[in-house]
Write a structure and sequence with these properties.
The chain is an alpha/beta fold. It contains 8 helices and 8 strands, in the order βαβαβαβαβααβααββ. About 35% of the residues lie in helices and about 15% in strands. The protein has an 8-stranded mixed sheet. The two termini are about 30 Å apart.
Length: about 260
Amino acid sequence: MSVHSKPDSERDAILITAVGRQSFDAALDLLSSVDAVNPKRSTAIGAIDLGLGGAQRRALIARGVTIATPPWPLRAPAGQQRVGHLAQVIRPFSNLVFPGYRHYLWLDADRRLRSPECWRTLIAAADRDGLAVPVQSRPADPTVPWPERQWLIQRLDRAYGIRKMLSLTSLPMVDPGIVALRGDAPQWPSWQAETRRLVERTRSVAAADRIALLHLVYVDEMPANLLEARHGRIGSRANTTPASRPRSRSAAELSVV
């Protein structure tokens, strides 16, 4: 599935996002936040094309972004192979789209870097366990809007049955909008395989990589550095990682929103 060749050895890390026509302006803001905290732009930037217009592609290329239009990494159900749906499954396969880097950081286009330490902290967190990801509110949390809670609960029930659904909804949700992995992390093939199985089992791509990541962390119990998310920021306090994951480690506060 490789779309781009191995990078220059001096560029051992890449930040990847997915961009379409509607998220183009948000992606520009993300790039500006990267430049603000890293003026020399020592990090490669990759973008998955979700239907960009020609002028938008040229604007991103002018900002130093490498754009990829990858094929679908799995067999999507009929009617669900529209380009916008690719965003629901592509995160676990981003290392195949941009191969050869030592570190990968996925940020959704609507996220921002707020401090120079943010990137280094995320990479260090991934280095320890192969994977670093923030956690969010539990689905049963009353602060989460009911339609969102109901949809996710139904999706988990459809994917894994009522017993696993009840177990998973008692735990903090992982946030796939910010994910850091080592290039050689064993979590890559496991995340890819579970995403494929999930789509095949449910005949739906909706939030497939998010739910597969949740399964990877809590059911498969793959090593993960879970970072606490609160008040629109990502960080952690001592002894605040989920009790169900004693192998997880806390990390310094990250200024990512």
